[in-house]
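Minutes, project check-in
Item: structure for the 261-residue chain
Input as provided by the requester:
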Amino acid sequence: MEDKYGDQTAPVSYRQLAEDIDGLTEMGNLACKHGEKCFNQISAAVDRCIAANPNFVTESLKAAELAYQTRYKAEALKLVRESNAEPLFKELADLVMKRFNSVADIEEAINEFFSDEERTQISSDAEEAGNDFIEVAKGFCNENCFDESALYFKPLLNAMHEEGSCTDASEFCGSCQENADSYLSASTSFAMPCCLKNVAEKTIEAYDLVEERYEDLVERIDGVISDTLSAAAKERVDEIVAEVRTQAGCIGECRQELRVQ
C-alpha cells in the first residue's frame, strides 16, 4: 500500500479502491484468524508482568514518556511544521504536541473538560461499545463477511468510477452518487450482505447515540479548541464540516435506496 500510494499526488480513485479490495480482504481474514489469539497472548503477557511487578504499567508509561521527550518529540514537531499538510492540520498537530507530553497532561485535560458524571457516563458507554464491537466483529468473522463484502463493493466501486466526472474517492455527491444509484437500481439481485448491513446499522446507531448524548459536550470542547486556532484555521474547519455534512447527506440518500431494495 505504501509503495502504491506513498508518492501519489492525484486523489485516490474509486477504481483504485476496487483494485485493492482483494488485498484488504486478505488482511481482514488474517485478522479474523489470528486477531483474538494475538490479543489474548499480549493480554496474558501483560498480566504476567503485572504479577511480577505491580508497578509495571506506571513504570512502562514513564519510560514511554521519557523516550518521547528525549528522542522523538523534537523530530515529530519538525516533521509537522515542515510537512505539506494544510495549515489547519499543522496547527492542530502543533497544539496537541505542545499540550500533551505525559500521562499527567492527559489526565489534567480530562479532569478539565469532563465532570465526574460525564467521565462515569463516558466510561460506561465505552465499555458497552467495546463489548458490542467484539460481538459484531465475531459475527462478521464467523460469517466470512470480508469475502462477502469484497464481492459487494468491488463491482460497485468500479461502476462508480468515471473518468472526467468521478475520479476522487473523497467525494460522493454528484456523478459518483448517480453512478452508484444507477448500478444499484439496475442490479436487482445485488444486495448488501446481511453481515455487512448489521455492521452499518450498528455504526449508525452508535453515531446517533453519541450525537444525542454528547452534543453539548462536543460543542464545549469545540469552543475550547477554536479559541486556540487562527482565523484561517477556523474558516477551514467550517468548510470541512460543511463538506462532510454534504457528503454524509448523499451517502444517507444512497443508504435509503439500499433499504428500499
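Outcome recorded: The two ends are 34 Å apart (CA to CA).
No further action items on this chain.
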